[in-house]
TrEMBL record:
Lineage, highest ranks first: Eukaryota, Viridiplantae, Streptophyta, Embryophyta, Tracheophyta
SUPFAM superfamilies for this protein: DNA/RNA polymerases
Name of the protein in its database record: Transposon Ty5-1 protein YCL074W family
Domain Reverse transcriptase Ty1/copia-type: 2-87
Organism of provenance: Cajanus cajan
Stored InterPro entries: DNA/RNA_pol_sf, RVT_2
């Protein structure tokens, strides 16, 4: 089964302008985002429990490896502070 098909089954919608971006609105004020780059995924949401649930579902389908909080992506360092998220 392909990743795109699986994400759509989970209720995600593939962006028409960027096929690597999937979104899911879980309620009027909450949206989840998944960005796919080859074999890497970035999952983002303000609701940590939703992220955990999606990771569990993906792990059942694909046996994924969770690298934890994002710190590097495509050669860029990602850092967090109280002031926001920064790309270095």
């Amino acid at each position: 089964i392909k990743l795109t098909e699986t994400l759509k089954l989970f209720g995600f919608v593939q962006s028409k302008s960027d096929y690597s971006l999937f979104t899911k609105r879980t309620n009027p004020s909450l949206c989840m985002f998944i960005l796919v780059c080859v074999d890497d995924l970035i999952i983002s949401s303000s609701d940590e429990t939703k992220i955990v649930k999606v990771k569990r579902l993906l792990d059942k389908q694909f046996s994924i490896k969770d690298l934890g909080q994002l710190s590097y992506f495509l050669g860029l360092e990602i850092s967090r502070s109280d002031q926001g998220i920064f790309v270095c």
